[in-house]
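Work through this:
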Amino acid sequence: MDPVKIYIIDDHHLFIEGLYALLSDEDCLEITGYSMDPNNFLDNLNQIDADVFLVDINMPVMTGIALTKLIINKKPEAKILALTMYNDYRHIEKMIKSGALGYSLKSDNIKELIKAIRSVARGKKFISESIQETVVNKIGTIHRIEETEDIRKSSLTKRELEILMLIIKEYSNKQIAEKLFISERTVETHRKNIFAKTNTNSAISLLKYSIKEGIIDM
């Protein structure tokens, strides 16, 4: 299998050198280049050979959020992984909505970073384990979670997907039954099947699974 090609956009040269040192021995990865100037990077985007772009958020010339939007505008198929020190929901939400597939912290260990890169390279959404709780606490209690186009790729049935969305939104079995005009016993059967197929056991773990698999949008 060919290594995943990585391109870094970050304004800290020392950090870039550190990534080179950490990732140079990984056969599954290859750093093809880096840029410390977002504008220069955009000018040369079409000539850059990369599977995944690692984008910092806090840069003086242009934020990573703005840069991500411009990358997606010029190259819609680009796969972007935010690599930053910000662990708050506001930055996570803005980067994902701007087009980033994944979000990792600079404080994550190397195994977690490699996992993030490989997931994003496959077109999967990825939220660093260290910030999953932040995401879950924020969106697990609101009702604006939306289905994505990737939902069609799920192994779950259409009915199971309907019930999955309601479980995540913290509907009870009775509420689900009333909403879908089915019995509570049928809901319970579907719930058990959903947890078995997704290898989860709670609404929170099901939410994490759905984010990772791209079934829902933040």
Observations:
- Confidence is low (pLDDT under 50) at residues 141-147.
